[in-house]
Write a structure and sequence with these properties.
With about 425 residues, the protein is α/β, with parallel strands linked by helices. The protein folds into 2 domains: about 95-325, ANL, N-terminal domain (Rossmann fold, 3-Layer(aba) Sandwich), CATH 3.40.50; about 330-430, GMP Synthetase, Chain A, domain 3, CATH 3.30.300.30. The protein is built from 11 helices and 21 strands. The protein has helices at about 10-30, 35, 60-65, 100-115, 135-150, 160-170, 180-190, 215-225, 335-345, 380-400, 430, and strands at about 85, 95-100, 125-130, 150-155, 175, 205, 225-235, 240-245, 250-255, 260-265, 280-285, 295-300, 305, 315, 320-325, 330, 335, 350-360, 365-375, 405-410, 425. The strands form 5 sheets. It has a 9-stranded mixed sheet, with helices on both faces. The mean pLDDT is about 90. Zinc ion binds near residues 246 and 248.
């Protein structure tokens, strides 16, 4: 019998009922962890009548997790723990996450659901090119692929020649890979005269583990001639499989029977309007070893409106649009540099480099964006340049809801980025 998963067919009402029940259970389990015992003392299970009542519970931050290391967030006896993962995180705050046998099974079920939704079957050969070890990318998908019934190749990351050899020899049809490494593999294939579209048998690729643009996804799709699905996860929530894109590629379905999703304004901590960008906040609903209540992921995304043609009623998240650490508040509006980047990439004439400057002349925030044009687009024709400048300003205004001044530059005129994704110069505090 092929592996199947009924929870993907739950209706909104059923999801809501399940979430309410499991949130109460989570409350009871979390109380057993020293870190939560006092903080949850004032809430009774009867206080939870709907998923929205999660807001009666306290938020949990990465800093609290770190302060509670190694054992304060553990809600079961240590003898019930069968594995731990350890994440250094982007800001260097290392935290451990513990799993019982059941937790590992639930994690595999979440990722397996995403694999099925992207049309993976037991006939597929799955080459897992994510690192195995403390990092959750490798093992998270490994057990999911075995659950689905794929022949699973635990290739791990690196050793590109061997990866290519494995793909050729065993006809790998499904890959799991960090997007930047996907590009690297394509580059090595190019140099070796291998046509990744025709010499391989790859039809589905899962990407995750680092932020990436839609353009990068499309390049990997074209390079391999395969469907590329985005995956979202973080070690604090087990790992990959929290939300994954189905074959429709129109947003990532959250496993809502396992995770309760909120999207909050990172400043006011109130829920944003549906469809608005905000911080992804997640509560585990089934985890035993380390239940986490309203964990602030610091990832920025939005819930996408409407139904998915695949039939799943589980909410869809946009791709991650940035991190709360990158957020700018300009004239009271929350702005994420990724929004600016996306708007600029929509304009064909815009080249690779841009820089955002904020200042505050006469007590009013002002945002300017210096943009390098492509060689082809650059011209001495003043009228054309002014029209292009207006067009870029309008595109930014549509995206950000505030007016932005755009300056155009010749290719190579702006300083080259120091490797950081976000190029923002904020002069506002210096002037006050
Ligand atoms: Zn779908």
């Amino acid at each position: 019998m092929p592996y199947s998963d009924d929870a993907v067919n739950l209706s909104r009402d059923e999801i809501s009922r399940i979430q309410t029940t499991r949130l109460r259970e989570t409350l009871e389990r979390a109380r057993r962890a020293p870190a939560y015992a006092d903080r949850l003392a004032g809430v009774a299970p009867e206080d939870i009548q709907s998923p929205a009542d999660v807001r009666k519970l306290p938020l949990t931050s990465k800093g609290q997790l770190r302060d509670g290391m190694p054992w304060d967030f553990l809600g079961v006896p240590r003898s019930e723990v069968v594995r731990m993962h350890y994440s250094s995180g982007t800001t260097g705050l290392a935290t451990a996450v513990y799993h019982t046998r059941s937790d590992l099974r639930m994690w595999a079920e979440c990722a397996a659901r995403g694999m099925l939704a992207a049309d993976v079957t037991e006939d597929d050969v799955f080459q897992n090119m994510m690192g195995y070890g403390l990092f959750t990318g490798g093992l998270g998908f490994h057990y999911a692929a075995e659950l689905v019934g794929c022949m699973t190749i635990p290739a791990s990351s690196g050793n590109t020649e061997r990866q290519i050899h494995l793909m050729q020899s065993f006809g790998s049809s499904v890959l799991h890979i960090i997007p930047s490494y996907g590009l690297r593999v394509l580059h090595v294939c190019d140099e070796a005269g291998i046509d990744a579209r025709n010499d391989f048998n790859v039809r589905i690729i899962f990407v995750g583990g680092e932020p990436h643009s839609e353009q990068l996804r499309r390049r990997i799709e074209e390079g391999f001639g395969a469907q590329v699905s985005n995956c979202y996860g973080l070690s604090e929530m087990a790992g990959p499989g929290v939300a994954m894109e189905c074959r429709e590629q129109n947003g990532l379905h959250v496993c809502e029977d396992h995770y309760l999703l909120e999207v909050l304004d990172p400043q006011s901590l109130e829920p944003v309007e549906p469809g608005e960008l905000g911080e992804v906040v997640l509560t585990t609903l089934r985890r035993e070893a380390m239940p986490l209540i309203r964990y602030r992921t610091r990832d920025i995304a939005r819930v996408l409106p409407g139904d998915c043609p695949c039939g799943s009623a589980h909410l869809r998240l946009s791709r991650m649009e940035g991190r709360t650490d990158d957020m700018l508040v300009v004239r009271g509006v929350n702005i994420y540099p990724m929004q600016i980047e996306r708007a600029l990439l929509d304009v064909d004439e815009v080249g690779r480099n841009y820089a955002i400057t904020l200042d505050r002349p006469e007590d009013l925030d002002r945002m300017s964006v210096a943009v390098e044009l492509t060689q082809e687009a650059f011209t001495d024709e003043m009228r054309e340049l002014t029209a292009l400048q207006r067009r870029i300003e309008q595109r930014l205004q549509t995206e950000l809801d505030i007016s932005v001044r755009v300056e155009l530059h010749e290719p190579g005129e702006l300083p080259v980025s120091d490797g950081k994704a976000v190029r923002v110069i904020d002069n506002r505090n210096r002037e006050t």
